[in-house]
Amino acid sequence: MKFKSIILLGVAFLAAGCASTPRSEKISEAWYEPRGELVGEPSAIAPARAEDILPKPESLPEFTASSRMTIIEQESLDSPLPERSGEHLYCQAFAALDGGDQVKARMLLRKALWELDHDDPLRPSAAMGLARLYYFEGNYGSAIALLTRSGVKPAGVEAYFLADLYRAQADYSNAVDTYLGMVGGMDEIARDELHARIRRMIDRMGRATLSEFAASRPFTPEGGYATLRLSRWLMASGREVEAEPMLGRVAFIFSGSPMGESAEKLLVRQRGIRNVRPGNIGVLLPLSDRLAPFGKKVLHGILLGSRLFGADTSGHEQKQNQITLQIADSGGDPLKSAEAVIDLATRGVVGIIGPLKGEAAQAAAEAARMMGVPLVTVTPTGGFEGDGVFRLYLREEDEVDRLVAHAVETLDIRRFAILAPDNEAGRRYRKLFWDSVVEHGAEIAGASLFEASENITLETPIHKLTGIYGLKGAELRERFETERRAELEKQKSLLMALGIALGEAEAGLDDAEKEFAKYEPEPQVDFTGVFLPVSSLTAGQLAPQLPYYDVNDVVLLGIRSWNYSALTKVGKRYVRGSHFPVEWTVDSEEGAAFATAFEEAYGHAPGVLEAYGYDAVQLILDIAAELEVMGRTELQRGLEIVWAKPAVTGPLTTHPGGEIASEPKLMKVVGRKIVPATNGKEARQ
Question: Which is nearest to 331 in space by CA: 300, 308, 357?
Fold first, then answer.
C-alpha cells in the first residue's frame, strides 16, 4: 500500500512538472485526485522514474536554449562537481536520479537552489524536486521548511503537497490555512471537496489546538465548525456550562445555515438535559385523531402501571408523588410527534413512552436521538430502533416460531400448508413460517397466495395445494384411472366379503367412458396443519371453505390477530381446534394480577394495548428502583440490558438492535371459547 500511494503521488507530480505552465492549472482538473487520508509512513521505496520526482529539463520552458543533455553526456557523475550555473546543477541532479542515486541528486539540488536567484523561474521546480526527495526519505520537517523558506509560494498541486506534509506532522492548523489559501478560483465541486478535507483536519485537532483555532477565527465557517466540535467535547466531558455559551454564539453567527441549526439543536438538547427531573416520564400518544381510542387504551395501562392509584398489582402501597407523567398528544402526525418529543425533553422528562403509529414513531425516534432522551415505542412497525430508541412489541419472528414449535412438538404435525394473502404482510408471514418449519425439522407440503379482497374465494389456492389445479388431458385421465382402479378394488373386496361373485360386481359398474365424462378429481391432502395469517374476522370467514373444497381433518394455525371474539362468532365449528399465539393471557401470574387490578380500576377487562402500556411504565419504574438517582443515561443503559424480566407480556428481553421482545403465549379454540393451550400432547380436534 505504501508503494502504491507513493507511485500515485509521483504520477501527480509528473503531470505538474511536465506541463508547459504547471502552476496555472486548476486543482479540480482530473489529473489530480486529493487524498482523503494522511500521508503514509516514510518509505525507502522511491519512484522508478526520475521525472516522477523532478521534471525533465527539456520539459521546462524556464530553461535557456543551451544544450542541456550535451552537458549531461560530457560530464561523468563520478567526476568532481565543478562550479557551474544553477541550471547545469539541475541537469546533473536529474541525471543522478535517472541513475538511481537519490543522495547525490539531493546534494545537487541543494547546491542548485543556492546558485539560483530567488526570482529565477527554475527555482520552484528545483525546490519541489528537493522537497519530494525529503518526502520519500520521511523527512517531512525539512520538506516543509524548504517550501516555506525558499521564497516559493506553492500553488495547485504543490499546495496540496505542502498541506499533506503538515498533516503528516499533525500540524492541522497550518494544513487548514494552506487549504484555505487554495479556495479562490476553484469550481463548486472542487471547493466542496476541499471544505470536506478542511473539516476532517479540524476533526483531528487536539482539544488545545481546537480551542486556539476556534478562538482565532470565530466568524469564519471553519472557526464555527471548530467551536461546534469543541462544544460537543465539553458536553461529553460533563462541562455543559462551558459549552452552552459557545453553542449560543455559533447559533447566532451562523443563523439560518446547517451549522447554526446544529448548534441550536444541541443548545435545546443541553437545556433539556440540565432540566432533567428524576421521576418525570413523558407519554406521547394519539389522543385526538382517529387513533385516539387506541391511544387511550395504552394510556389506561400506563396510568395503572405508574402506581398513581396508590398501589401496584401486588397490593403494596407506593410513595405518593413517586413519579410525574407529562402527557402529550401526538395526533398520529409525524411532525407533531417530533415537536412533542422536543417539548417533553426540554421540560426535563427522563424518558418517553410512545407513540403508536409507525410514521409518528419514526419521527419521534429521530427527535429523541437528537435530544438524548430514551424512547420506548409501542408500535408494530419496526426498523428505527437503536441508539436510545426501543420498541416494546411481540416480534413476528418470535410469534411464528412459538406457533411452529407448539405445532411440531405438541400437536405432532409434520407437514404444513400455507394459505396467505398476496400482500406485504402475507408474504412476510409466509417466509417466516416456512423458515421456522424447516428449522424445526418439519416440511412444507405447499404454499399458495390468494387475493386480499372483500369476497375471498380459496378455490384456486386450495386446488393448487391439493394438486388438482389445471389438470388436463393425459394428466386428468391418469388421475381418473388411478382413482377408478382403487374404487374397483375397494368394491371387489366388499362384494367378496358379502359372497357376491366378482363377475356380477364388474357387470354392475357403469361404463368407464361415461364415468370419465362426469369425473372430478379428488384433492390430495398430504398435510395436517394449515397456516392462515389473516385477521380473526377473515379467518372465521375462510375456515368453512376448507371442508367445502374437501380439505378435512386439518388444524388451523393463526397469528395474534385471531385473538378476538369474531373468530368463533363467524367461524363457529369450523375453527374448533385452531391454535394461535398471543401477547398475554390471564393464565400467568403477572397476567392474572394485571387483569384483576385493571378491572378494579376501570370496571372492564384489559386488552393487549393496555398490557403494553402497563409493561412499558413498569419497566422504567423497576429500573429506577434499582438506582438512587436515575438520569437519561442510566435509563438508557437499564433498558439496553433487560433480560427475561417478568411482565404481563413477558418475560421481556432487549435484543441488540433495541427491540424489547415479549414472549408469546399459545391459545386454542375449544367449542366457542378461546382458552390457553396446554403444554402436553393434544388431540387435533
Answer: 357
**What number of residues does the chain have?**
685
Are 31 and 140 within one domain?
Answer: yes
Q: Which has the closest alpha carbon to 399: 576, 676, 615, 662?
A: 662
Let me know if residue 507 belongs to a domain: no
What digits encode the pLDDT tens for the residues 594-631?
A: 999 999 999 999 999 999 999 999 999 998 887 766 78
Would you say residue 675 lies in a domain? Answer: no
Q: Name the most confidently modeled range: 11-25, 241-255, 415-429, 507-521.
A: 415-429
pLDDT reported for residue 313: 52
Q: Are residues 370 and 269 in contact, defined by beta-carbon separation less than 8 angstroms? A: yes
Q: Are residues 75 and 100 in the same domain?
A: yes
pTM for this predicted structure: 0.64
CB 175 within 8 A of CB 166: yes
**Starting from the edge strand earliest in sequence, which strands make up the sheet with 375-377, in order?**
324-329, 280-285, 351-353, 375-377, 389-393, 659-661, 653-654
The enclosing domain of 388 has a CATH number of 3.40.50.2300
Q: Which domain holds residue 240?
A: 205-274
Residue 513 covered by a domain? no
**Same domain assignment for residues 244 and 264:** yes
Sheet holding 555-557, edge to edge: 443-450, 415-421, 529-531, 555-557, 579-582, 665-670, 673-676
Peptide bond into 656 cis (omega under 30): no
Residues 406 and 532 in one domain: yes
End-to-end CA distance of the chain, in Å?
70
How remote is the C-alpha of 232 from its chain's centroid?
A: 24
What would the pLDDT profile of 181-226 be if each residue is shown by its tens digit?
A: 877 767 788 788 888 888 888 888 888 888 888 888 888 888 899 9
Strands 443-450 and 389-393: unpaired
Distance CA 342, CA 359 (A): 17
Q: Locate cell 453567527: which residue?
A: 253
Q: 443 with 374, same domain? A: no
Same-domain check for residues 318 and 381: yes
Please state whether beta strands 579-582 and 665-670 pair in parallel, antiparallel, or not at all (unpaired): antiparallel
pLDDT in tens, 454-501: 788 888 888 888 876 555 656 555 666 666 676 667 777 776 766 665
Residue 79: count of CB within 10 angstroms of its CB = 7
Q: What is the grid cell recorded at 453?
A: 379482497
Would you state the pLDDT for residue 637? Answer: 92
Residue that has been written with the C-alpha cell 377408478 in this structure: 484
Please name the residues in contact with 32: beta carbons below 8 A apart, sequence gap of 6 or more.
12, 15, 16, 156, 157, 160
Contacts by residues 63-70 (CB-CB < 8 Å, ≥ 24 positions apart): 63/87, 63/122
Block residue for cell numbers 497550518: 174
pLDDT at 381: 85
For residue 594, report the phi and psi dihedrals to the nearest 5 degrees.
-65, -45
Query: Per the structure, how many domains does the chain have?
Result: 4
Do 158 and 306 share a domain, yes or no? no
pLDDT digits (tens, 9 = 90+) for 50-75: 777 777 776 676 555 443 444 444 44
Considering the domain boundaries, does residue 35 fall inside one? yes
Question: Of 252, 274, 296, which marks where a domain is finished?
Answer: 274
Q: With 60 as the cut, is the pLDDT of residue 584 above it?
A: yes
Q: Are 146 and 240 within one domain?
A: no
